[in-house]
Amino acid sequence: MAIDFDTVIERRWTGSLKWQRYEGTEILPLWVADMDFAAPPVVLDAIRARLDHGVLGYSKPHPGLNEAVLEYLARAHGVKAEASWIEWLPGLVPAKSMACRAVGGAGDSVLTLTPVYPPFLSVHADAQKELIMVSLAHDEATAGGWRIDFEALEAAVRPDTKVFLFCNPHNPVGRVYTREEVERVADFCVRHGLLFVSDEIHCDLVLDAAATPHFSAARLDGPVREHMIVLMAASKTYNIPGLALAWALVPNAGLRRQFRAGGGKLIPELNPLSFHATEAALRHGEPWRQELLGYLRGNRDFLTDFIARRLPGLTLSLPLEATYLAWIDARGLGVDHPQAYYEKAGVGLSDGRDFAGAGWLRLNFGCPRATLEEALTRMERAAG
Ligand SMILES: Cc1ncc(COP(=O)(O)O)c(C=O)c1O
Q1: Is the preceding peptide bond at 287 cis, omega within 30 degrees of 0?
Q2: Is 246 touching ligand 1 by the criterion CB < 6 Å?
Q3: Domain ends where: 215, 250, 284?
């Protein structure tokens, strides 16, 4: 491997959200979704080059950036998009909030599938809307196999439902939805007049792309195009979420205006360093990404084996098709509060309750193998 993902980089006292939660303690943080790896050298070089210019005024996408996105979309995802569809934003969370405000009015409802990344469960409130949650179906017998329960969706949708928030790949269950599933979701949205918001932030973190290729909603043609917002970023894949940049693809011009209006005056001008970092990642990041995926597959396999052999009471949800986030059933532990239980043992995990998944835990394995091994060993020791 040309890239060293094994060396532990000290992140304490750097203002890291992930590490700051436990500063002054020995607890290892394996919660929020960023990785403990340095960004790719090509990305860091691009930031340095922009910095060397010296002037950091208010910025717009520089020439070449939208082209880099369009080329990337075509090459990596078979998406034929147009530059006019692209809206640059400081993140996917604000984008989801804007989408909820873009359509309908106060008192209307937003639909989503659980368990899910926590902001999916709260952005509706920014638009004074209600939330309708539909559980993914989960086949306990095969310890995995999360799938969309379309019958439950049909039963839950209401005349006042305006938005469907979709997460693909799905954080935290790690599913990469098939083309058929995405098409069925699109059909569901069209039939019920819903704005289809597809969060695809993890689309370049598919661990075995030959087996479970990502199918972007932006590939869909037909009526859904008029009611669709696809959200993406280089932030998760290249580990630059702190630079706060994302883009939305909104094919319909009227919807684009409504979407922008949903941001009010809350969306700031964006950061020139993040624009250059994103362009470098999309244009030149692929060799690094391939190495990263190899390392993450190794971590996933290590974790799978460790849990199966040494952590009775925990069941890892498999198959883990994408992301560096593992969704773990802790109900077999027989403790009331699994997150607190492991925190006491020195490991900071995400509490499933925040994802509408009580009794579950989310573990971030985007870290050097040694960190992962130490965390799992502490979890094993917790049992006494
Ligand atoms: C599915 C999903 N969407 C969005 C985000 C965060 O997006 P942003 O930092 O761009 O607001 C995350 C971060 O974990 C995520 O997992």
Answers
A1: no
A2: yes
A3: 284
